[in-house]
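Quick one, probably user error.
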């Protein structure tokens, strides 16, 4: 009997010491139970989130430039980059997301022609959080020539190649020019 009675407290002490060593008893913040550990994200959704953040950072913001000096020629900043044009084309006509060996589409031999359509400046007005400024518009017509290859693998494998494919994408670039005294320190007037 003495062996049984001494074994139970020793086993209980060993069990309590094991729980104490793991550090899992103290929970800071809300306890989500089995949902607490990180949940893996699909690469498809990860890629969409990264693309959205990249486009917002690079192409969806409006820069604020200095004032337009009198007598100088007013020109837009830069024409659209090849990356911006291909991203706009992918939004309009997606090729991503095909199923390998079943249906895939790809673009090869891409050539891009950018033509400026319009470049004009609006009269000055007050923009919230910016102040008095002029909105500068630049419109571009982008013609993309490429070879479109579509591969279908089931039920009967075949490939369609369109060597004279072309798409037209219109891209607008807008930015602001400050009006008046740019150094808006104490006592500055617009």
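Nope, works fine. Designed sequence:
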């Amino acid at each position: 009997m003495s062996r049984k009675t001494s074994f139970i407290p020793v086993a209980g002490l060993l069990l309590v010491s094991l729980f104490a060593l793991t550090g899992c008893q103290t929970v800071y913040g809300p306890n989500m139970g089995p949902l607490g550990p990180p949940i893996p994200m699909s690469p498809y959704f990860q890629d969409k989130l990264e693309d959205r953040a990249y486009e917002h950072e690079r192409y969806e913001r409006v820069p604020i430039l200095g004032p337009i000096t009198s007598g100088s020629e007013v020109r837009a900043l830069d024409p659209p980059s090849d990356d911006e044009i291909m991203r706009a084309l992918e939004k309009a006509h997606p090729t991503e997301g095909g199923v390998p060996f079943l249906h895939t589409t790809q673009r090869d031999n891409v050539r891009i022609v950018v033509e400026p359509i319009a470049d004009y400046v609006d009269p000055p007005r007050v923009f919230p959080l910016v102040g008095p400024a002029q909105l500068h518009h630049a419109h571009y017509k982008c013609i993309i020539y490429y070879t479109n290859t579509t591969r279908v693998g089931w039920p009967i494998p075949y490939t369609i190649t369109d060597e004279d494919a072309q798409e037209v994408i219109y891209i607008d670039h807008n930015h602001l020019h400050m009006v008046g005294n740019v150094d808006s320190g104490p006592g500055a007037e617009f």
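The chain has a mean pLDDT of 84.
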